[in-house]
């Protein structure tokens, strides 16, 4: 019956076929509508977002560079601390070295002769002097191994960076402002001054200045 109705109404069949939506016709319309939906994102908005992205990228790069510098600075501080960690110990140890050197100087044959007027020293005093000298030598070896070294002072031009002038003496024998006597040795620890040398400095006699 339906076939007969269709054959009798060919115009109705063509109308029904025309009412069926076509995928081929809707595809381009959907694409066009999507394009129309994207169109509100203007060039100014895109430019603004691009500029903001560049600013954030630059900020991150700067933060990264600052962090790297921070790590390097902290590492230098750690290395510096390790390098000079024993500075206080060595500074206190220098007083022991001073006392040993005073003992050696006092027990030396020259001082014994000057004080007593006798030639030579007793055998037990000689043995004691040898022992003190050995202790002094061992301590100086330890200090040297840890990069503690005496500051050059005797007969050197006075340098306020390494020398501390206790007094001045007039003399013609050496140039002006020369260290003529060391009262206490100075020491350096690596490239840092541990203790300045206490010295007597020369100066021109008063009549030479006129």
Sequence-ordered SSE layout with sheet pairings:
Elements: H1 2-8, H2 10-19, H3 23-38, H4 43-83, H5 87-107, H6 109-116, H7 123-145, E1 148-150, E2 163-170, E3 179-184, E4 187-189, E5 192-195, E6 197-203, H8 206-209
Parallel strand pairs: 2-6
Antiparallel strand pairs: 1-4, 3-6, 4-5
Strand content: 5-15%
Strand order in the largest sheet: 1-4-5
Q: Supply the helix-strand structural class.
A: alpha+beta
Helix content: 55-70%
Major β-sheet annotation? 3 strands, antiparallel
Radius of gyration: 48 Å
Oligomeric state of the chains? single chain
Could you tell me how far the N terminus lies from the C terminus, measured between alpha carbons in angstroms? 149 Å
Number of strands: 6
CATH topology of the domain at 148-210: Nucleotide Exchange Factor Grpe, Chain A, domain 2
The H-level CATH homologous superfamily of the domain at 148-210, spelled out, is: Head domain of nucleotide exchange factor GrpE
Summarize the structure.
By secondary structure, this protein is an alpha+beta fold. It is built from eight helices and six strands.
